[in-house]
Amino acid sequence: MSTQDASERGHRDRRLSMLLDVEAPSLAALGGAVARVLEASDCRLLIADYALRSLRPLLADDSLGEALQIEGTMAGRCFATGDVVSSVDGSTTTWLPLNDGVERIGVVELHFDSLFETELDARGVVELLGLVIVSRRRYTDVVHLARRSHPLSEAAEAQWDLLPPLCHSVGGVSVAGGLEPAYDIGGDSFDYAFNPGKLDFAVLDAAGHGLEAVLMAAAAVHCLRNARRSGRSLTETYTQIDRRIQAQFGHSFFVTGQLCALDVTTGVLTWINAGHVLPLHVRDRSFIGELQCRPSLPMGLGGAVRQVATARLQPGDRVLFYTDGVTESRSADGRLFGVDLLADFLVRATLDDVPAAETVRRLTGHVVDAVGGDLRDDATMFLIDYAGSETRSETSGLA
Fold first, then answer.
1. pLDDT value of residue 264
2. CA-to-CA distance for 244 and 137, rounded, in angstroms?
3. At 50, which CATH number?
4. What is the mean pLDDT of residues 147-174?
5. Exposed, middle or buried, 315 (CB in 10 Å: 0-12/13-18/19+)?
6. d(CA 237, CA 228)
7. Domains in the chain: how many in total?
8. Are the C-beta atoms of 204 and 190 separated by less than 8 Å?
9. DSSP assignment of 308-367, as one string?
10. pTM (2 decimals)?
11. For residue 50, which of 164, 161, 176, 183 has the smallest C-alpha distance?
12. Domain of 193?
């Protein structure tokens, strides 16, 4: 390495250290540090709300500016597509996706007094910014407050804290989830873990609504994680959740769901259907039907596993798990959303090559729009996107 290269690298590293030196509570200060690192005249952080329908700009004092809709804006296009978007008119305004790996946090808006041509440097800085924000959001409420475009119910507060990141990708498998009504969710949940050679996941729907249903969902999720981390089978996991719900809540309470494991190398999907709606299967960009599994009783009612189903996914397959609040939602004139319409929207997104996270965001938006924004039940989706053999050699490590 030449003396000049070493000097430039040292200067860049010193500038990047500015991000790490910012005190934890202030996200606006992080934006200022990004501006200094990239020699921009201004930098704004725009954080996506819980429903993933708007972006809230953080002002200099960490208060929130007026929300920008994701649909129909330059910043929203950056968020939805994951592409860098620029507007040039003497000066340059550039929007870059603000992510933690795959999970979408929001958008960084940069202003330059002249033409801006160092996109790769900016991407690297913004990627570091995403890691810094995620590492610090456990110690401050600033990020959580920025995600609220409406007040959050107590049940929704608990439910969002229970969830893993909404999306992730390892090797040849991508996953994405979405919940509505985002600000009043209560009872629906999902969980997943990428482990060596395998993806374990579940979609759950606790009976009822509100905080009581969330407490049931939380008990089920923590039983699920305990069983998974103890090396128990899907059947043993079903039994453990079933007994815990009975012991903690009584025999009139229950949780429906799908308990699943995907071998990411072979594409073999194994699952138990605990009284739940069946997942939708897309292959070769067409809806080929529901994956079948004879239903066991919902967990909490003292039943036994009736079937552990298997299916082999092919490269390019998509499987959408969801709760009945999606297909049973109705418009103001009483029309049922239904399985056919959900499958149609899923195929359209697939034909448009929309990635998993954006597919789920669009699907949940379609459901909310179809019922005029007035969902009477929780509506949750969890999408598996299986790329298959092209990347199988990458899937043996930890996420």
1. 94
2. 32
3. 3.30.450.40
4. 92
5. middle
6. 7
7. 2
8. yes
9. -EEEE--TTEEEEEE-HHHHT-B-TT--B-HHHHHHHHHHHHHHTT--HHHHHHHHHHHH
10. 0.89
11. 183
12. 154-394
Residues 337 and 328 sit within 8 Å (Cβ to Cβ)? yes
Both 277 and 381 in one domain: the answer is: yes
Tokens of 339: 């399985």
Report the CATH number at residue 349.
3.60.40.10
Crossing angle of the two packed helices 119-136 and 27-38, in degrees rounded to 10: 160
Are 305 and 187 in a shared domain?
yes
Residues 182 and 314 in one domain: yes
Which residues is 271 bridged to in the sheet?
Answer: 260, 309
The tokens for 319 are 């499987």
Cα gap 315→306, rounded to integer Å: 29
- The CA dihedral of 205, 207, 209, 210, to the nearest 10 degrees, is -90
Please tell me whether residues 309 and 172 are part of one structural domain: yes
Q: Which residues 6+ apart lie within 8 Å of 312 measured at CB?
A: 266, 267, 268, 269
The rounded distance, in Å, linking the Cα atoms of 381 and 177 is 5
The pLDDT tens digits for 198-241 are: 999 999 999 988 899 999 999 999 999 999 999 999 999 999 99
Query: What residue ranges in 49-122 does DSSP mark as E strands?
Result: 54-57, 68-69, 85-89, 91-100, 103-112
Instruction: Categorize the per-residue pLDDT at 398 as very low, low, confident or very high, splitting at 50, 70 and 90.
Output: very low
Domain boundary among 85, 113, 146: 146
Q: Cα dihedral sign for 347, 353, 355, 358?
A: negative
- Which of 146, 166, 184 is where one domain is finished? 146
Whether the pLDDT of residue 377 is over 80: the answer is: no
The pLDDT of 161-165, averaged and rounded, is 93
Q: How many CB atoms lie within 10 A of CB 381?
A: 27
CB-CB contact of 227 with 240 (8 Å)? yes
DSSP 217-247: HHHHHHHHHHHHHTT--HHHHHHHHHHHHHH
Listed in sequence order, the DSSP H helices in the chain are 3-21, 27-38, 74-81, 119-136, 142-146, 154-162, 211-229, 234-249, 324-327, 338-351, 356-370
- Does residue 399 fall inside a structural domain? no
Instruction: Give just the sign of the alpha carbon dihedral 238, 241, 247, 252.
Output: negative
Q: Are 75 and 168 in the same domain?
A: no
Cα–Cα–Cα angle for 49, 50, 51, rounded to 5 degrees:
90
Do both 182 and 201 map to the same domain?
yes
> With contact defined as beta carbons under 8 Å apart, do 12 and 6 qualify?
no
Query: Hey, what are 268's tokens?
Result: 């073999």
